[in-house]
Amino acid sequence: MALRLVADFDLRKDVLPWLRAQRTAAAGARGGGAGILENNYESLRVLNVERNGNIIYTYKDDNGNVFFGLCDCRTRQNEHLYTFEKDLQVVSCSVNSERTLLAASLVQSTKEGRRNELQPGSKCLTLLVEIHPVNNVKVLKAVDSYIWVQFLYPHVESHPLPENHLLLISEEKYIEQFHIQVIQEDGNRVVIKNSGHLPKERVAEDFVWAQWDMSEQRLYYIDLKKSRSILKCIQFYAEENFNLMFEAPLDISLNDSGFNLVSFGCADLQNQEKLSKHLTLCVFTNHTGSLCVCYSPKFDSWEQITYSVFYFHKGHSKTFTVALESADSYGTKGITFLNLDYYVAVYLPGHFLHLLNIQHPDLICHSLFLSGNTEVVDMLPHSPLQSLSGSLVLDWCSGKLYRALLNQSYLLQFLWNTRLDCEKMAVLHCVLSCGRDSRFLEAKIIQWISENISSCHSFDLIQEFIIASSYWSIYPETSNIDKLLPYSSVLTWNTEIPGITLVTEEIALPLMKVHSFKGYWEKLNSNLEYVKYSEPHLLYNNSVVRREWHNLISEEKTGERRSVVYVRSILDNAVKVISNLEARRLVKKGPVMKPLDFEPRLTPLFQEEDNHQRLLMGLMVSELKDHLLRHLQGVEKKRIDQMVLDYVSKLLDLICQILETSWTKHNVHPCILHFNRRASAAEFAVFHIMTRILEATNSLFLPLPPGFHTLHTILGVHCLPLHNLLHYIDNGVLLLTETAVTRLMKDLDNTEKNEKLKFSIIVRLPPLIGQKICRLWDHPMSSNIISRNHVKRLLQNYKKQPRSSVIDKSSCSVEFLPLNYFIEILTDIESSSQALYAFEGHDNVDAKFVEEAALKHTTMLLGL
Length: 864
Description:
It is a single chain. By secondary structure, the chain is of the alpha+beta class. Among the domains are: 1-207, no CATH class; 787-864, no CATH class. 35% of the residues lie in helices and 24% in strands. The chain has 22 helices and 35 strands. Strands 20-16-17-18-19-33 form a six-stranded mixed beta sheet, with no helix packed on it. It has a five-stranded antiparallel beta sheet with strand order 21-22-23-24-32, with no helix packed on it. Strand 6 (88-95) and strand 7 (101-108) form a beta hairpin. Helix 9 runs antiparallel to helix 11 and helix 13 (681-700) crosses helix 14. The longest helix has 29 residues, at 637-665. The protein is elongated and about 130 Å long.
């Protein structure tokens, strides 16, 4: 299953054995018989999950007494809190962080254990109980409407016996906060100070919907202003103050939806049928400053389902209409929304599971839509699920508390089996966002890419993997990086998702009501500011690097290279990247900590200078660093320097991993670097994957590991016929490096076929490299090329002068007057000191060498 629910707590396993042991011990103390132990605990259920993870539960004994217990999430120890010796039905319950006060809201029950809805005198009692030890009970409310209670948990929990703050949420649409001071008497006896008068204040009123975020101590609620739904949020702090943080209009109608609460404890199961007829509405946030409102209206038809997600941190909403494949309701009446950090899961049992990317919701292809297959969507519970803070999920019926996680194993398997490009894209990002054991996940994805390199038509697999994986490798390090670095190689997506209709609309941004932000609120405000003043150029691309790199290469060819200091600084950046890359490849050997060692490389990369790739690498570091320094305010330069090195190193490492996976898969032998053998099928496969890597990186203008072009060229010589090889070279697919051509000149003999190959390669080399390479080939053709270049340079500025000298025939080995005259001119030019200085270093190339080369070449052409 794409979504994995890991049980954190189970009433039947974590509580029931303890209750039975307590009951057995009590029966033994009273001398009771076995018949007393027949209670089947059908009434046992979870009431609340507090911020510290402690779980409050209740059950009724055979006499109808209401028992309250607590399970400590850290120690897994159970504790009896209190027992009401009356037949009451629990509405809500909460305990303070010190476990000294218990707040409970209860209603009268009939003999059948149900609330008497027809009895006008029915009362809802809200009680505050001193439980350390059990002392007094104070009535906070005695009204006809339901009341829910919730203690606030301060962020600082170390100071003893602080003032306690209790929220009371009334069905009459108001919320109050009680301030309760406690004092310590007679040793450990904790009592309420001035219990006759507890200060209180009104927090909110006239609301129709409210949600409690226990982890972040936030209250979201909606009030209706002129038939408009306004979402508001109140943040509670460790001290007794609180702030209204924002107001946001919601384009939904709540006039006829009734009163609805989310995450204020667990609602009475007997009212679930009533609650399920209401709309579903919940707010999700995460640490990156996202704010999502998920909304599903009431629906009567099972032909299609509609739900909406308001991405306030992005400034737009998306409404999804899902065509259902069957009309079976599977025992449930509504959609469940679950918070999965970077994703929201939208779940309708037996029908579909959608994983919506809330961090990057712009393109629909970044979200995963699963439906129809019972193996995919039918493994989650069909009972109502409640999403709590973080990734916690509570199953009301079974009393199980789960931690919801994306299932890496399933997603990887799904990646292999799916045929839709949109699902490949979505799953790729789902897997990478999991963030657990990234090296393992990358290896699995690379293995899949190597098997399916040509299976995608809508996007380039290698490009998408390199960009996405590099992004996620540094994403957690700082906020706002998603606005500055590309997340995907795909800019637009127009292909429809089967069974899904999508409408995207702009929405009004939340209005922040405070001016000083910290933590989450600072990040949310930053996101909102970005939406208001978004600038397309903020997202980094390599266009500047492309232009500057071409300038440097052009200068190199003309010999007009700019400041040596500038070029040296660029190359120093490359050295830092390669050093950082090698340091990242350090691995630990064995289960015990041992000295670190380098993971050996399979491919012959990083074994040559390759100044062109080092320039590209260094330029990318320089430009990316400048880009982040301009837009990442408040982040120290040293940290940005390391982020950039990590990012560029990751790009190169991923390319190496792809190549090494292909190398291993095809069991390529090291003798691939020699020319004295024919190409194998394995070499053809590696050459193909290298060509695809080159295509992917060229369009994004990303650097390649030094040695990549050498290896690619050598494989090309092995695998391609000469005309195809030259076509690849002329079109820039194969780049001739000095290392590759040097090896070619040395390793290939001078057969007619090889002579043709060598000559075709030499004439395509840049002049500076070509002059070096020609000296390695002891052949008339090579001598001819060297001579031509030498003569061209000598005669470049030659001016004809009158001559009176007579040719000395004794110095010529052959009577060939035009050649003799030409050699005399070259000799005169070489004799000048200026000419010797200009051609210093060109050893063994002079007029005599030119004469010999010309004669050999003429003899060869005439077949003499």
